[in-house]
Design brief:
This is Serine hydrolase. The protein is α+β, with helices and mostly antiparallel strands. The protein has helices at about 15-30, 75-90, 130-135, 150-160, 170-180, 195-210, 210-225, 260, 280-290, 305-310, 320-325, 395-405; strands at about 35-45, 45-60, 65, 70, 110-115, 120-125, 245, 255, 280, 295, 300, 340, 345, 360-365, 370-375, 380-385. The protein has 2 domains: about 10-85 and about 210-405, 3-Layer(aba) Sandwich (Beta-lactamase), CATH 3.40.710.10; about 95-210, no CATH class. The strands form 5 sheets. An 8-stranded antiparallel β-sheet has the order 3-2-1-16-15-14-13-12, with helices on both faces. The chain has a two-stranded antiparallel sheet with strand order 4-9. Strands 5-6 form a two-stranded antiparallel sheet. A hairpin with a 2-residue loop joins strand 10 (about 295) and strand 11 (about 300).
Length: about 400
Amino acid sequence: MNIAPRIEAKQVGFDPTRLARIDEHFARYVDAGRLAGWQAVVTRRGEIAHSSTYGLRDREAGTPVQPDTLWRIYSMTKPITSVAAMMLWEEGHFELTDEIGRWLPEFAEMRVYAKGSTLKPYTVPAIEPIRIWHLLTHTAGLTYGFMQTSVVDGLYRAAGYDLYPPAEVDLAEACRVFGELPLLFQPGTAWGYSVATDVLGRLIEVVSGQRLDTFLTERILRPLGMADTCWHVEGADAERLAALYVPDPTSGRAVRHDALGALAYEKPALLSGGGGLISSAADYHRFTQLLLRGGELDGTRLLGPRTVRFMTRNHLPADRDLGTLSTGGFAETNLDGIGFGLGFAVVDDPVPSRVPSSVGEYYWGGVASTAFWVDPVEEITAMFFTQLMPSSTWPIRPQLRQLVYSALVD
């Protein structure tokens, strides 16, 4: 699929010389060995204003990043799963206030961690059931084992759930385990990045009667023409997949990490709605354009425009921000002035983060340093793809915003 600009950047209000700073800046990351390679795409008013690649998708093989390179998008899967859930909501299958225990009984009688250690945790009954909006906003009290910040995520790791689940465990079994573990906090009282979107994926399966991969393919990926987006790669597509890297703790240079990277070549037992997809820039561009256009693209409507606007408002309790409600362990960007909607972080006030953006802009990223945002005010979308874990290694996301917004001159 073509991802090249068809117009001059100045036609949509960008200074092309300033946009070129994106390439100059991030080329230095590659030249210094901190990234193997990357791909960036910036659009305005539905037109691609800037599209570039630099470096190698596989440094050891010497193969360059190309426009059709495939990337592990990890948590950029979450907005797609959230859109899927809201499609079912639009059809009247559930209300956002419904208890998830109605469909997933393993979550009907939850307990909440109060004190103690991983060997002897003390818990109390949840005073509020987990509701569907809690899953969409990460306010359910669930967590991730890889967070390394609490007794509860230690319990996840003890159960075998770190960055990846135990081998051969499917989504239904994972949710059964999550339902047996205590919550980090009472539902609706705080924000904790978590397996909530995986649980949401299981809810989609039970409500729709389809496996998550089938539902996403039939209802979102195929209608949008996202043919490159998949759960694993094989055959000719395997050659297009970028290698996965981590920073050397001493030098900061990107070092290949095949132990995790190789998992993308295997069909997963667990369909992770929170982090399981692989995609291309062209495919994810179509998804961002669907959002920018209020749920419709090229005659295909997946959501109503009011639903998209509703999803991208701050849904945190008392309209507070992530800086106030976050339980910690999540440091991809500054969280001050940032709310959270139904599947997306939302900018309520750009000033506290000290990074230019628009009120109402929404975004997310993946653990391998991929990122996107949609700015409905300026009608901008931006995407950045690379494969370096964790995403907090370098300040790629705020720097990309600086470069894009300083190039907007109309």
